[in-house]
Each structure stands twice: as structure tokens, then as C-alpha cells.
Amino acid sequence: MAETINFDGIFVEDTCDLYPGDELITLDFGTIADKYLYLNSRTLSESFSIRLINCDLSLGREINASFNGNENSFLPGYLALDPASQANGIAIGLETDTGEKIDINKKDHTQKLSAGNNEIKLKAFIQGEHSALANKTISYGTFISTLTFFLEYN
């Protein structure tokens, strides 16, 4: 027996283009002293941005950015380190440029667009896990974490 499945859809034009090179953003936190985390529980924020160009407001007037990755099991909303990382007891937090926390794996950041070029300004920081801070068990070493961003226009 053979049956037929029909597929249909609509291709649409994106409201904005991603600035060339912003498909892969690397943020280096440099060297972080464990003593700083034990005293402050988190690092200062490091700024980064997602740049948008050629925005056409006839196709959408705002953007919703979501950030997906492996969530830290001890700090909900924070990004876990990749398994190959040597460091342990820390997570990566995201926030807006005004310091408002952004939880990963949620549609959490909406911004109005203007015609032409736009910039989604963000910050990231290292947060110590509560038990690792209390017991002073943050492990030393290199770390890496991967986050994917999605942009939805309204």
C-alpha cells in the first residue's frame, strides 16, 4: 500500500540580516581567580553584542532573542560548562546590557527594532555554584561552553 504525504509552507524574508562574522561569537573571560568568586560569587560582566544590518520594518518591528544550551543542574537558567572542561563548580550567566538576567532555553529578550542597523547588547559572567562557593570546591582549569542564539521577528 502506498499513501501520499503533501508538504506545504511559505518562505519569508528575514526582517534583518546578521552582520557577517556574528554567526560565531567567541567571548574570552581570561584568567579568573577562585578567591574572587569566593568573595563575590560571580565575576564582573563581559560585554558582547549581536549585530543586525539591513533591517526592514515592514517585515517586523521587534526581535525576540532566545539562547539555548545545556543548563547547569545547580543553577537553573545558567549555562553549564561543556563536559571537556577542566574547571568545575561554575556556570555562565547571561544578562542584558542593563543587568537584567536572561535565562537560557526561554524566549527571554525582546527588543524594538529601528530601520537599518541594530545591535542586541548583552553581557555574560561566571557564577559560582552555591555549594561550590560554600564548600570552596571550585575546580581549576580551562572551560568552554556553547550557546546557540535564535532570532524571531514580530
Automatic annotation (TrEMBL):
Offer one Pfam family short name for this entry.
Answer: Fimbrial
**According to its record, what are the GO cellular component terms?**
pilus
* Entries under SUPFAM superfamilies matching the protein: Bacterial adhesins
Q: Where is each Fimbrial-type adhesion domain found?
A: 6-153
Superkingdom field: Bacteria
An example Gene Ontology biological process: cell adhesion involved in single-species biofilm formation
Put simply, this protein is called Type 1 fimbrial protein
Record the organism: Providencia rettgeri
